[in-house]
Amino acid sequence: MVMQGMTFSTLKKHPALLPLYACVGLGLSGAIFYVLRNATRNPDVSWNKSSNPEPWQEYSNKQYKFYSPVRDYSTIESPAPKYNE
């Protein structure tokens, strides 16, 4: 036995559930997008350390924040320390 509202035939009987499914679907897709963006674009995450042992140096003058309205990161000095080899 399937719960009501879980199949298309019972969803026709309960149309008030459509906004609920839409909001849950939108929230789920937003959460998945944000996690994937953080996993691929954040300098704190390094997937391949052999080709680039110091990946944070790549972002020294780039914007990697999700939202930054007024800053131009190409002209700002990076707060990351510069290590001498």
Task: Explain what this protein looks like in three dimensions.
The chain has 85 residues and is mainly alpha-helical. The chain has a domain at 11-57. Helix content is 36%, strand content 0%. It has 2 helices and no strands. The longest helix has 25 residues, at 17-41. The model has no long low-confidence stretch (mean pLDDT 79). It holds the Pfam family B12D.
Compile the SSE list and pairings:
Layout: H1 8-13, H2 17-41
By DSSP, the count of extended strands is 0
Q: Encode the helix/strand succession as letters.
A: HH
Q: Helical stretch count?
A: 2
Structural class: mainly alpha
Question: What percentage of amino acids are in beta strands?
Answer: under 5%
The largest β sheet comes out as: none
Mean of all residue-level pLDDT scores: 79
Low-confidence stretches: none
Assign an overall shape: elongated
Distance between the termini: 67 Å
List keywords for this structure.
single chain, 85 residues, mainly alpha
Quick rundown:
The chain is mainly alpha-helical. It is 36% helix and 0% strand. The protein is built from two helices and no strands.
